[in-house]
Amino acid sequence: MYEPIRTKSVHTPADDADFPHRTREEELDIQLAGHLAALLAVTDELGLGTAGDRIAEQVARLRGTPPTRHAGLSDAPAAALHRRAHALAGRALVVAASRADTAVAILSAERMDAHTAAMPTATAPDPTAPDPAAPPELVGAL
User: Fold this and answer.
1) In whole angstroms, how large is the CA radius of gyration of the chain?
2) What average pLDDT is seen over the chain?
């Protein structure tokens, strides 16, 4: 009733392929260096030189070469830059914890704390958010 498959499956492992394979640790190093480089760019845009130098040291350790640093300004408000830096530091922290890199994990946690402290505390309430004082709305109830 069915014709047998005559070609190799795309799910067959390519053990004899001639492309280079990277280990999980190498992939995590690449990913971590990318997150730190993005954090470095935002940190430099905020003008945080000392923090930027510490991040650049870790990027250089992971990549083997110092990162390229430039003053590309996006004209974003400082609050938005701090939120972006906080998110990037959080991603770096997750990858650093995954690869057991204590130095980067500590640095990322410190940067998260610093950017949290630098964010404005008073924000306007979201008009689309439900009122926490309102009773819960029952859906489908009569």
Assistant:
1) 23
2) 84
